[in-house]
Amino acid sequence: MYELRNYTELLVKKTLEEYLPKSGLPCQCERCRADIMAFALNRLPPRYFVSLKGEVFTSFKAQTVPDKTRVLAEVISASQIVAANPSHSISSETLD
Ligand SMILES: [Zn+2]
Known about the structure:
Elements: E1 2-6, H1 7-23, H2 30-42, E2 48-52, H3 68-84
Antiparallel strand pairs: 1-2
Helix pairs in contact: 1-2, 1-3, 2-3
This protein binds zinc ion.
């Protein structure tokens, strides 16, 4: 069984996971993380590849990989947009 996967999505997810702990964002819940990924992914070119279902991702041809600096820039920019316009209300009583 084969499936389509988007390398850009994997890269954005990894970049976001590394960026969040030092981002100082007021909310880092699952919803906000998904919103940040959606914003960033809509601004980056997709890089689909076929993988065997369940196969662990190992490598990808370097020349087709989106620029990591650009990915980080889009993640930071998306984080600022989401922090300024969260999809849910943020208060100490609202967890999500
Ligand atoms: Zn949130």
